[in-house]
DNA sequence: TCCTAAATGTGACCTAGGTCACTGACCTAA
DNA sequence: TTAGGTCAGTGACCTAGGTCACATTTAGGA
């Protein structure tokens, strides 16, 4: 039954955790679906921010651009992630740009429905706090990394983080299947593409990792970890 | 009447905006006061984060430290500012360190009282949303600046921002009374003390500003603004 | 299967800005 | 008044990492 499936899906979106069936039904009535091609822009920095997005499938990067065209990725959204501004903000202008890195399917909510939802259900407010707090945490780490750590450390940390995310599969504890290009990694770590390529080569030369197309194999996890300090 | 004064003070704290008298009274009953000397630590990165602070007077810097001892300031809190983590967080460990830059007087709230307050009053949740969203906005700008802008641009932006903050006094539109040391500016902008001194000299040489002890005079605002792009 | 475009590796070069090492200017306490 | 501490300015030096240029590999389409 498609109706039930919808509610089933919603139930697994973090921001709707703990919602009752009836609350989910009222959420459902506001949601619309939309698809974006790879490379399409969901919203642009400075625009009026009149929608809330929830990613169903695909990956979205949120980033800022310098006047010389360099990009810094602030966060990468995957399935279940929500991109929402503060409902009470007077300005409502987007502080960054969002681009589909792969084909993307999202649910979205108009600004008015969003405000209505927040006001009518205090659980939403609570969920938003959790969402914002997590984002703050990750922004704070990003600031520290970009400002205080060198690119090699950032890259090693990135690899180890990816390993944690990927380590679900048994028997492949040391394998990362990489869905990011070097360019994407560079933008996320605030570095140049070439620098990332260079350090990957260096780590390979030092027998800490092995680099294959779309894959990284960890050869010496302890060795990598020791580079973080 | 000191009692009334207390409530009067609370009414002007952004996080308690829109609270009724009785709500403020219940807030009041949880708050305790504490003083910190200049240089004292309010809390340290990694510690269990078991208090919420509201600054009454003085200035507090929130920062992270690299393994080599360099600091990056994340934010500077002044009178009325609140420093609170997400009440629902499972971990509750501070992601940064807070230090009194001047003598500081704060109100604080225990973790338990904080959670109780958030649960019993949905306005608090809403205030937290606003607080977090503002912080996200400023973190996001900080990431962009540190990662994509050179130090000179960051410094010019800092000067112009200070000018906005200070421009309340008539007849002194072009004067900034500086309560930050070069070191503090450097930490906030993610640069070295010497680099800040050098660029200040450069701006002075180029007749854009004049630098006096504890003061900066803007000589050519348009000229400064044109350096931002 | 081949062909083109995108993704990657690497060498050469250059510069922003960090670090070190001084000097001088204040300020406060004895 | 002086001595010690903090703050600020500046020169010398060095290096992480950005940019440019090019060769090479990989991956989808037709």
Short description:
2 copies of one chain form a homodimer. Chain A has 229 residues and is α+β, with helices and mostly antiparallel strands. Chain A is built from 8 helices and 11 strands.
Describe the structure.
2 copies of one chain form a homodimer. With 229 residues, chain A is an alpha+beta fold. Chain A has 2 domains: 3-145, Jelly Rolls; 149-226, Winged helix-like DNA-binding domain superfamily/Winged helix DNA-binding domain (Arc Repressor Mutant, subunit A), CATH 1.10.10. Chain A is 44% helix and 23% strand. In chain A, the strands form 3 sheets. Chain A has a 4-stranded antiparallel sheet. Chain A has a 4-stranded antiparallel sheet with strand order 2-7-4-5. In chain A, strand 4 and strand 5 form a beta hairpin. In chain A, helix 3 (111-120) crosses helix 4 (122-148). The radius of gyration of chain A is 19 Å and the shape is globular. The termini of chain A are far apart. The interface between A and B is large, with 38 and 38 residues. Chain A binds a DNA duplex (30 and 30 nucleotides) through helix 7.
